[in-house]
Each structure stands twice: as structure tokens, then as C-alpha cells.
Amino acid sequence: MAKLEESLKAVETETKATKKEVVRSNLELNRTKEEKESLSTEMDQIVDAIMDEHENGFNKDLRQVALLAPDLDLSYLTMTHDVIDGKLVPMVSLEEKMESVRNKKHRSWMDGMKEFDIISAKRAGTNPKSSNGV
User: Which residues contact 101 (CB under 8 A, 6 or more apart)?
Assistant: First the structure.
């Protein structure tokens, strides 16, 4: 009977330790989820800032061109197009680019950017390697 009580106490002690570990793990999981959400929000804010600066830079360039060539019609120029093989073609938007990079978590940032260049070139109907001069 003493061995049975001793065995029961050992199981109870182990159960308490396991419960404490589960509580500790759940707390850590919750902290990790909160940190992930915070980092995701921060990343979205950074992407928004990048997109804003990209647009601001484009508009600044347009104003400079308008100053230097006032008779030139700039209405057809947009920041969502690029010149590839001498043609103005629609490109993957920066938002699509960032989403593509976000969805490739197992890959590096540069791999995501390279993939963006390939997608853009395919949309333009050009060889991906020729669009970047390689």
C-alpha cells in the first residue's frame, strides 16, 4: 500500500509539473502571437511608407520633367509602368511585390525581389534575363 501511495504521489507531482509547463508554454505562445502581430503591423507600416516614398519620388520626378519640358504631355505616365525593351508596359505593383515577398516566408527577401522581376518581365512579354541587362 505504501508503494501505491508513493507511486500516486509521484504521478501527482509529475502531473503538477506538466500542468505548470503547459501554462508556461501557453503564456509563451500568447507572447509569441502578440509579437508576431506587432511585427506584422510594423511590416505593413513599413510597406506603406515605402509605397508613399516611391509615389512621392515619382511625382517629384514628374514635376522636374514638367519644369524642364513644359510642352511635354506627361498625363500618360504612371508609376505602375516601366520601360522594357523600349516600350512602356504595366508592372507588378509595389503592393503585389511586397505581398509576394511576404508569402515566400521560407525564402530570402532577395529571392522574393528576383521573383518580382521575373513576374514583371513576363507581364511585359520579355525574357526575364533581358529586362535587367543580364
Answer: 109, 112, 113, 116
What pLDDT is stored for residue 134 in this prediction? 38
What is the value of pTM for the model shown? 0.52
CA distance 94 to 57: 14
Closest CA to 122 of 89, 100, 80, 75: 89
Q: Are the beta carbons of 131 and 120 closer than 8 angstroms?
A: yes
Question: Residue ranges per domain, the chain?
Answer: 1-71, 80-134
Average pLDDT, the chain: 80
Alpha-helical segments (H) within 69-125: 94-103, 109-124
